[in-house]
Amino acid sequence: xxxxxxxxLQLLPESxxxxxxxxxxxACEKAKEMGADIALFPEMWSDGYYLPQDECELNxxxxxxxxxxxxxxxxxxxxxxxxxxxxxxxxxxxxxxNSFILFDRTGAEVLYHAKVHTCAFDLExxxxxxxxxxxxxxxxxxxxxxVGAMICFDREFPESARILMLKGAELILAPNACPMEINRLSxxxxxxxxxxxxxxxxxxxxxxxxxxxxxxxxDGVSWLPDEPGSRDMCVFxxxxxxxxxxxxxxxxxxxxxxEREIMGDKFRRPDKYGILTENRCx
Length: 282
Fold this sequence. Notes:
This protein is α/β, with parallel strands linked by helices and 282 residues long. The chain has helices spanning 17-33, 55-61, 68-80, 158-166, 182-195, 251-260; strands at residues 3-10, 38-40, 83-90, 97-103, 109-114, 135-140, 143-149, 171-175, 198-202, 216-218, 234-237, 243-250. The strands form two sheets. A six-stranded mixed β-sheet has the order 5-4-3-2-1-12. A six-stranded mixed β-sheet has the order 6-7-8-9-10-11, with helices on one face. A hairpin with a 5-residue loop joins strand 4 and strand 5.
């Protein structure tokens, strides 16, 4: 059994960067006690997904990738021997970024992602978007796993998960800050199904505006050869309450499924998809 344990830190935010760091560090320590291999924060943990529209106030909340906040979580990852996926409002010109960094259990930065599909129709109009979807090998106690990231609205675009699958991702880490209702949960299920990969999503709990918990793990295994019918890929769904939840991913089961089944890259026809890369006026 290759059970990868992912701690979904479904936490309410505090009122300052220092308090966010202290609460987050304590949550990582608890996650390690619970046996986690990876700890994942909800979207933009550094300020609790607070996005003022005033430029000066917004910029006062931004932090750099080498800030004490980020360095603190790098050190925590090394001290605990725990991979940590930390999220933050990143200092960037001309506009800030909604960013994610994954540190491995030695404290090395292995993956960086800035939200590509910003919610420019709403509060995130004050942000820039990221430029790529990246995949990295994360070494864990149960062996290496290929990991990518999507942030919230990224999940609504099939291309996000498809690119990560094509680059070899087995697991997508997805920080989130919105209501997880039937349609968004169905989107995650679909991304996992069509790409034969796992998606772990960490949301803010009820009590955070416009959020309701329901952090999830879809493991990407839609059926088993020795069992009739289809299988529920949602192997974990949290309630609404604030807590640290452990979701377990059977990597061996996922890898066997990817070897024998037909989704993912096996029967694609990229020569027929030209329209997908055309710039269109909407």
